[in-house]
Write a structure and sequence with these properties.
Number of strands: 11
Strand content: over 45%
Largest sheet: 7 strands, mixed
Radius of gyration: 14 Å
Oligomer: single chain
Number of helices: 0
Distance between the termini: 40 Å
Helix content: under 10%
Structural class: mainly beta
Length: 120
Amino acid sequence: QVQLVESGGGLVQPGGSLRLSCAASGFTFSRYVMSWYRQAPGKERELVASITSASDNGNYADSVKGRFTISRDNAKNTVYLQMNSLKPEDTAVYYCKAAWGSESYGHRYWGQGTQVTVSS
């Protein structure tokens, strides 16, 4: 059974930090590109960060560069998103995604999402 279980979301003040975790099971984790997306009410879902191998530093949206860090631990089948210097505009539901292959042949899995609220 394929599962992506997210944790670590919550309420934080501007300038604070949160660490999101996504625990994966039911597939060969190391062969998948892992990503974090987010979606705020009334806005489209956007890619925040993605990572290929454990040695990859990741790719980031311009809005989070220098503040967020994505990492993965293949031994634990877990991907993380360290979020520092949080801003109110970071408020959104954050989703974990696993992807392998192409549009014509491959697999895509999504987590259920976790709420991050940045407010004073």
